[in-house]
Write a structure and sequence with these properties.
With about 150 residues, the chain is of the alpha/beta class. The chain is about 50% helix and about 20% strand. The protein has six helices and five strands, in the order H-E-H-E-H-E-H-E-E-H-H. Helix 3 runs parallel beside helix 4. The radius of gyration is 15 Å and the shape is globular.
Length: about 150
């Protein structure tokens, strides 16, 4: 069976396992983000934790390092990086394509930040909840207040 099919199968099994366990316990999500999104995540992170009961462990790195860590199968639930890096990770089946969402557009029009769940994600339902929160109304408000644009 091809590697990508095995990974998709693993993600589906993870989602089904998450559904069966319900909200039994809070998840700890490992987030790896580009440094440019630090001010936004410092504000939105505690709001998400309070609303969801989940805990975020956020690390920041340059875009190239994020690509390498996600590609290495290191346990990272959510990656936030620029669009070219995210596109490459989706193409190489390292970020689940259906989860990759435009989060913000930078000061220059060619800089776009994307958030997505990695295939190594251990908490797929909590990861989806974080993505929805970041791209939702509360997230958009904070992103715009930080001088970035939303889609």
């Amino acid at each position: 069976m091809p590697k990508s099919a095995i990974r998709i199968y693993a993600v589906v099994l993870g989602l089904l396992a998450g559904l069966s366990s319900g909200a039994a316990g809070a998840a700890e999500l490992k987030v790896l983000s580009t440094e440019a999104m630090r001010p936004t995540l410092q504000e939105l992170g505690p709001a998400f934790e309070a609303a969801s009961g989940n805990k975020l462990v956020i690390a920041y790195a340059p875009d190239a390092d994020i690509e390498k860590k996600v590609a290495s199968d290191e346990t990272i639930d959510i990656a936030i990086l620029t669009k070219p890096g995210a596109d490459k990770l989706v193409k190489n089946a390292r970020i689940v394509g259906g989860t990759a969402e435009v989060l913000a557009k930078g000061p220059s029009p060619d800089v776009v930040y994307v958030v997505g769940a990695s295939f190594a994600c251990e908490q797929p339902l909590a990861a989806k909840a974080l993505i929805d929160f970041l791209i939702g109304p509360a997230g958009k408000k904070v992103i715009q207040a930080k001088g970035l644009q939303t889609s």
